[in-house]
Design brief:
The complex is a heterodimer of chains A (about 110) and B (about 110).
Chain A lengths: L3 E4 L2 E5 L4 E7 L3 E9 L5 E7 L2 E5 L2 E6 L4 E6 L8 E9 L8 E3 L3 E6 L1
Parallel strand pairs in A: 2-11
Antiparallel strand pairs in A: 1-3, 3-8, 4-5, 4-9, 6-7, 7-8, 9-10, 9-11
Chain B lengths: L4 E3 L2 E4 L5 E6 L6 E8 L3 E9 L2 E4 L8 E7 L2 E6 L8 E8 L8 E2 L3 E5 L1
Parallel strand pairs in B: 2-11
Antiparallel strand pairs in B: 1-3, 3-8, 4-5, 4-9, 5-6, 7-8, 9-10, 9-11
Classes of the chains: A mainly beta (about 110), B mainly beta (about 110).
Chain lengths: ~110, ~110
């Protein structure tokens, strides 16, 4: 079983829809990241959070430490939001403290 | 700052050849990571340096892979000899010293071994 699981793997939405991407993890973490990867490959960090909720524009990220679960929400989705969204957790154990373990990503396609 | 700079952006090489990927981290960042991304396995950590010293290389696939960080502003990932299964996108990322600081990724090097 992967230590970081994302769902769904693929998501197609119509422009304007509210989108939710989920991430569950099974290890002790010090922080969780949401990353965005556009076609062409560059990776951009959207959020880093260790508790509660963060908001940036139309993007909202939440985390529940007790349930080991995080969600990324996109309000009023737009075709330019089409990308792969990757959840990554920063582990807090062993010699690799601080390293990231990644989910497989969620491929989002927003149709006009 | 220009961000994390990787070169080349694309590399195509023949099986058996040596490949060297390069990374310039953001100035002042103490930690540097090499990741590999494939369709099958997603993103995986290969090796992690802190203050130019390799801390965790458990993700390096085999002896054909080696990484160095001769100084704070430069790192290389070398594959010798390369094999078709090494084809992937290789990302370098850097981070300031604090463990919970955010990491910044380079644009990646897309390697194709034919």
């Amino acid at each position: 079983k992967n230590e970081v699981e994302q769902s769904p793997q693929n998501l197609t939405a119509q422009e304007g829809e509210f989108i939710t991407i989920n991430c569950s993890y099974s290890v002790g973490i010090s922080a969780l990241h949401w990353l965005q990867q556009h076609p062409g490959g560059g990776i951009v960090s959207l959020f880093m959070l260790s508790s509660g909720k963060k908001k940036h524009g139309r993007l909202i990220a939440t985390i529940n430490i007790q349930e080991k679960h995080s969600s990324l929400h996109i309000t009023a989705s737009h075709p330019r939001d089409s990308a792969v969204y990757i959840c990554a957790v920063r582990v807090n154990y062993g010699g690799s403290q601080g390293n990231l373990i990644f989910g497989k990503g969620t491929k989002l396609s927003v149709k006009p | 700052d220009a961000g994390v700079i990787q070169s080349p952006r694309h590399e195509v090489t023949e099986m058996g050849q040596e490949v060297t990927l390069r990374c310039k981290p953001i100035s002042g960042h103490n930690s540097l990571f090499w990741y590999r991304q494939t369709m099958m396995r997603g993103l995986e950590l290969l090796i992690y340096f802190n203050n130019n010293v390799p801390i965790d290389d458990s993700g390096m696939p085999e002896d054909r892979f080696s990484a160095k960080m001769p100084n704070a502003s430069f790192s290389t990932l070398k594959i010798q000899p390369s094999e078709p299964r090494d084809s992937a996108v290789y990302f370098c990322a850097s981070r300031p010293g604090h463990r919970d600081a955010e990491a910044f990724f380079g644009q990646g090097t897309r390697l194709t071994v034919v």
